[in-house]
Amino acid sequence: MRNRFLIALILGVVSLAATAQTIIKSTDSHIKYSGRIAFKNGAAILSWSGNSAKINFNGTGIKASLKDEFGKNYLKVILDGTVLKDVELDSLQHSYDLVSGLASGPHTLELFKRTEWIFGRTLLYGFELEGDSKIEATPLTNTRKIEFYGNSITCGYAVLDTTGKDRGTPPYEDNYLSYAYLTAKHFNAEYSCIARSGIGVMVSWFPLIMPEMYDKLDPADEKSTWNFNKYTPDVVVINLFQNDSWLVKQPQHPEFAHRFGAKAPDEKQIIAAYQNFIKTIRKKYPQANIICALGSMDATREGSQWPGYITKAAEGLHDVKIKTHFFPYKGTAGHPSKTEQQAMADDLIKYIDKNIRW
């Protein structure tokens, strides 16, 4: 009887060992994060478009413990550089099975937040490795670094909506398909994306403008402040003024009155506002190449004054590392489609290759 008990105990221990999981907490140094990431109550907070968490492991599968603030965000699951699936998150904390049943061996798993911060924070508590899988060395940091400041175009608003309805709800937004991320991916560059749909330099469709948002760690927390010493980009791309170009002509809009009173800004004021923001970014990054961009929506259509405002602003700063680049007007309704975002990326890549050494 005693021998049977010992055999059963040994088999139980072996069984438990075989099914045991390795837990990697969100603060573990083996996880490589991209973008501005806050940490609170044992969780990494993924807020910004393009925030990601990457981990190397040797084994057959991996899970993640996640919770979404409002249950509206989507994460891309990327294994060894290939997108496996998109995960719609829940507002309750769950263990999500990211991938399982792999051939045992080295793998890289990345979670990429494709939706913007207005849909809420995504909390990553950690990863769970399947069976006898083991954690590997932290993924390497890329040498090149790029940062984008933008609006809905940069977020990837409605890029997945093929119906022509131009819907900006979470199922149709994907920063992974935006010109911004496509450009970073092409250059194998570290990626930071500071963007919100509807935002402007002087005025937005809501009470927040880029000069008030650009320095936030957690954009939903007005008291949070980003430490710019943590990430120094080689290239900064600023694609703004699309929303300003509409709102300066709408004196009935509450934000027009909020920002301008009763009178629209004149050319001198528009140029000065843009220059002030560029000077702010230059103070944060004294050596960076700054590309003042615009497009590819109607702010760059033929006859628009807005590319000229940006050109005058940039030239007036007398800085050889501050450049301009305008995406051709796409000539279609709504926000850029997947094809149009790729065309923007191709255009920007070509410009950077020709004009910037990094």
Automatic annotation (TrEMBL):
TM segment ranges: none
Position of the signal peptide: 1-20
Residues covered by the Carbohydrate esterase 2 N-terminal domain: 33-139
GO molecular function, one term: carboxylic ester hydrolase activity
Tree of life domain: Bacteria
Cited SUPFAM superfamilies: SGNH hydrolase (SSF52266)
Keyword terms of this UniProt record: Signal
Pfam families recorded: CE2_N (PF17996)
PANTHER family on file: ESTERASE, SGNH HYDROLASE-TYPE, GDSL-LIKE LIPASE/ACYLHYDROLASE DOMAIN PROTEIN (AFU_ORTHOLOGUE AFUA_2G00620)
Record protein name field: GDSL-type esterase/lipase family protein
Protein species of origin: Mucilaginibacter straminoryzae
